[in-house]
Amino acid sequence: MALSHQQRDQIERRVRAAGRQPDPREARIARPRDLNQRITGKLARTHTELTQLKEHHQFLLSVLAAKDDEVRRLRHQLSTSAAVPDQRQGDEPLASSSCPAADVTPV
């Protein structure tokens, strides 16, 4: 467990008060150890975030691919329906509703 600077200072004061000097080598070892722990934690968080961003990116790419497929399908459907000529003859009026009874021409 890493000690904060404040905790370390309190321990050093207690040791001095007891008449012994703290080992300076321990302080030189503790600081890099604390820094290493902080950097390792940050690296783990960054790695997790990167993984989540990659997963989200992949999901968005699949959504875009599905949308592109839909647009292509609709364009193909539109182009094939426009290529088929209208089967109606003469000046027959177009029906104004989609009801089958509207397709009957008035006499």
Note down, in words, how this protein is organized.
Helix content is 68%, strand content 0%. The protein has 2 helices and no strands. The chain has helices at 5-17, 24-83. The protein starts with a helix and ends in a 24-residue tail after the last helix.
Short description:
Helices cover 68% and strands 0% of the residues. The chain has 107 residues and is an all-alpha fold. The relative contact order is 0.05.
Topology:
Layout: H1 5-17, H2 24-83
What proportion of the residues form beta strands (DSSP E)? under 5%
The helicity comes to 55-70%
Number of helices: 2
Characterize the overall form.
rod-shaped
List segments where confidence is low: pLDDT < 50 over at least 5 consecutive residues: none
Largest sheet: none
Report the strand count. Answer: 0
Query: Distance between the terminal alpha carbons, to the nearest Å?
Result: 97 Å
User: What's the alpha carbon Rg, rounded to whole Å?
Assistant: 39 Å
Summarize model confidence as the mean pLDDT.
81
Question: How are helices and strands ordered from N to C?
Answer: HH
Structural class: mainly alpha
Which features characterize this protein?
107 residues; single chain; 2 helices; mainly alpha
